[in-house]
Write a structure and sequence with these properties.
homodimer, 279 residues, alpha/beta, 6-phosphogluconate dehydrogenase C-terminal fold, 8-stranded mixed sheet, 13% strand
Chain lengths: 279, 279
Amino acid sequence: MVITIIGVGLIGGSMAITLKENGFAKHIIGVDKNPENLDKAIRRRLIDEDLSLEEGIAKADIVILSTPVDTLKILLPKVLDLVENQIVLDVGSTKTKLLEHIKSHPKRGNFVATHPMAGTEYSGPEAAIPNLFDNRCTVICDVEDSNEKAIEKVKALYESMKMSIVYLDAKSHDIHTAYVSHISHISSFALALTVLEKEKDENRIFELASGGFGSTVRLAKSSPEMWVPIFEQNRDNVMDVLDEHINTLAKFRSLLIKKDFDGFAKLIRKANTISKIID
Amino acid sequence: MVITIIGVGLIGGSMAITLKENGFAKHIIGVDKNPENLDKAIRRRLIDEDLSLEEGIAKADIVILSTPVDTLKILLPKVLDLVENQIVLDVGSTKTKLLEHIKSHPKRGNFVATHPMAGTEYSGPEAAIPNLFDNRCTVICDVEDSNEKAIEKVKALYESMKMSIVYLDAKSHDIHTAYVSHISHISSFALALTVLEKEKDENRIFELASGGFGSTVRLAKSSPEMWVPIFEQNRDNVMDVLDEHINTLAKFRSLLIKKDFDGFAKLIRKANTISKIID
């Protein structure tokens, strides 16, 4: 299987490592508008060769689009214009806008909309790591709009990566991800800003910050190039979740004002039930 | 050195492991109002023996108080009533109220107010782990109110644990910890509640949650028994930080409403600077 990865960053690069290692891909071609990324990807041996978009697609059995979601919207129709029998999949974090955009493309059936639920706060080919996807899940969206052969190949690809598959329509996907991923990032960005604003003495933060702070602000290192387009495309859902999150914080605030610490304990006990769900 | 640990939970138990392992303590005595905790602590070999409060203090060179901060306020005066030459230290997360409370105790000089900046979201003796404190920092508060011999012993104790020491007055300590620790917990509790409220289908959260969500809600597993007394004692500082945090989230909200994604990117870039401070 020849796989062409367009956008060799954290996700594209990590898929390259995994798919080569497990033997699913015989040959991996990298395409990236940034020559520096390609250079790094070659030196890190993430890809076997780098080619232009046209050549990369022509030589591929499967084309993976792993760019930020704004680029994805521009790139996907172009890629579909170029394919014959190739299977195309994206790995973007938002789906509704993208799928509306290519709804009536004659090659729509060759395309499978996927979202592997894995990542780190780092980006670029230097951030690519093995085992990123182990035992995680991939969402396949609007599966009925892809042809059967395409679905089978994409399922085989993700199963080779030790991932399980969940099927959702694009709208549900975008609502769920607003809750389980997008709001975590905004919360983390805001927390970092709150502390940076107050603690002008950065050494003090560094000295005092215990593990707890580190884990809640970890995502605040995430790149605006990746995340702003996600918030833009999923704006309405993110607004809803953000409103609910601010309301929840306001509940804690109101309990503090009233010195209602029994109520505070009750809310914490309810929050504790998250441990049944998250390791 | 004989060390008596009152409250053999996550922090007390982890200190017991570290101080025995590094040879600073020859003998470790556990005191706990909960017989189950003592039983677990004995079976896990965290402590060498368990004794009553009075016996434990009488036999000790150093007494460590590692209970929730509400218990601390009741217990510390009682412990100071019982000491002769013993050094006493606490490891609580709030300091102003506690230190006001024992300000004029005749044995105030024997006491050193400390806060080792380390922890996990778990509690109880079963949560005690080695290396919890490695390369972390300990705050010593209002150092001028402790006598020199007490300070020297407590410094030696923390240095044996590979910890560095920072000196702060109690008020500054409580402000800083509101920023670098307490708000992280409220943010995490609120995030867990926001998601639990929406995602009635817990399996869906479990399937979809990627690493990012896990790390931002990790602290939401923290126990109300430990945390509510902290929020109670540090209420005014926590209120200030919570207000600022809600305001920061409101800034993101307003940028979303106005579709000002350049402004959004700017805020994210500012938040990214946290990576200079936190690994």
